[in-house]
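User: Good morning. I'm curious how LTNE7NMQ would be positioned relative to this chain. Could you predict the structure with it bound?
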Amino acid sequence: MSVESVQLSWSRPISAPPRVDRVALFVLGKGTVASSLLAQIGEHKARIVERDGLSLEIAGVCDRKSALFVPRPGGLDLADWRGALGAAPDADPRERRPFLDGLTRLGSRVSVLVDCTAADRMETLYEQALLRGIHVVTANKKPFAGSLPSFRRLQTTARRCRRALRYETTVGASLPVIETLKDLVRTGDRVELIEGSFSGTLGYLSNELLRGVPLSTAVGVARDRGYLEPRPQDDLSGVDVARKAVILAREIGLNLGLEDVRLTPFVPAELLAVSSPESFFEVLPTYDAEVAATVARAQAEGKVLRYLARIDPGQRRIDVGPVAVDVHHPAARLRGAESFVAFTTERYRDPLVVQGAGAGGALTAAGVLADILAIARKV
Ligand SMILES: NC(=O)C1=CN([C@@H]2O[C@H](COP(=O)(O)OP(=O)(O)OC[C@H]3O[C@@H](n4cnc5c(N)ncnc54)[C@H](O)[C@@H]3O)[C@@H](O)[C@H]2O)C=CC1
Ligand SMILES: N[C@@H](CC=O)C(=O)O
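Assistant: Good morning! Here's the predicted structure, ligand included:
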């Protein structure tokens, strides 16, 4: 056999189409982030096939009431996924194993469970997925800021099963916060301090309050722009920021939980006692004057009110709360729904800063999509 013929038998004929690998996704949620994700996949699908050789197929989508599973190549028709989900049968949100089994039976090269909810106790579902060889991408902070043993078990399961568990969007939406921190840790840097403004919503509200916009008006706009948590009290209590702080603290090996965070809410505590989101929006205007007065007091002293988090590994301490900062403070310069996270480390004496818009459906969905593509490209 000549050298030439050996080479030809190895290589793909020039005219052969490039290989396309199927990536099957099961999406939890149909809200701000999930619907943007499905729209982005619909819009960019052909380009992703062409550029990356990956065909993203929605095998299923569900909300807290019903679930739709489409066990055919190509997956769900994204033109009318809402209508199809609306007509889908009821499904118990506590029992998703049949869908996970269905996902594995599809035989795609990569299968991913994508959590775009803020549901509690998702750790069990993630474990069930990982144990079946399904990767997990999630925007849901709760599994990473909740019970420490469950969080550590989840990490161990992912490692043992050699499956990815990616949650970049849980801090700073699509800003590269978690991967940056992971890289610092992986390369042996020592993180001495993490601080910043971790909430796009509270950054936006602070800016609007400074412009004299009433709190209730600004919260309404933040909701319409898709910045708010499903339960807005989670934003205004600071709990959402506390969750992000715990996630970052755990990345640097601190065994801390929400109960360890020294938390001062963004708004008066009585407002947070209101339980349903509907009644919360009703009573919100009665707090406009009090909150405006707090902002005005800081302004009168030449300061800017910001909602900051500070993780001090040396002291094993996390502080989250409003701070009246000097106009030269990096947080004073934030615009719109911008967030920033500053890492001071042994190598970065001047902090490494990640900054940009930190909330919103399209941005977060892009971060979720980037996580999915990062997995599919590696496998
Ligand atoms: N909106 C944003 O800017 C960002 C959101 N996130 C996170 O993304 C997640 C989703 O946020 P949004 O889309 O804004 O909320 P959303 O309230 O618009 O959507 C949540 C969806 O989850 C569904 N859901 C609730 N429990 C479920 C269950 N057990 N099974 C299936 N579906 C269930 C609801 O039906 C709803 O469709 C949250 O965890 C949030 O913290 C993270 C970064 C930024
Ligand atoms: N409500 C959150 C959304 C992202 O996590 C925020 O505003 O930061």
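The pocket of LTNE7NMQ (ligand 2) is lined by residues 173, 199-201, 227-229, 235, 240, 358-359 (CB under 6 Å). The first strand starts at residue 21 and ends at 28.
Let me know if you'd like a different ligand tried.
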